[in-house]
Amino acid sequence: MIKIPGPVPNRESDLARPRERKGSDVQPVTRGLSRPAKPPNADRDWHPIARRLWDSLKQSGQADFYQASDWALAYSLCEDLSYYKNAGKRSGQMLQTIYSAFERLLVAEGDRRRVRIELHEPEPETQSAAVLAIADYKQDLGLAE
To answer: Read out DSSP for 60-119?
Structure first.
């Protein structure tokens, strides 16, 4: 995965043409098999902020790309964040280190866009399920045209 330095790039849909890197060839994508991964349960003793972050990771779209190793790293980082938040003495450098490690998990949208992963809203259905169900019911009754 190539991380693009500098400001957050525009979304692919905002561009008039595909991106090309000046002075270099387009990097080919190496593909592998995705394996099912199940996130472990959060520790009940975690600090509320670490627990909220963990829960948001499980609900967010980037979780579609997580493998078992990503969940293990996220768990470790939430454990570290909880320890840091509960500690009496805090270090700004330690907090920055923990937050920097979360960048590798593409937690923030800017991090995802730098590596060209975009999460989109699902396409709206053309007809609601209720409208389709009523039409099927009318057809079953012989009332449909």
So the answer is: SGGGGG--HHHHHHHHHHHHHHHHHHH-SS--HHHHHHHHHHHHTTT-SHHHHHHTT---
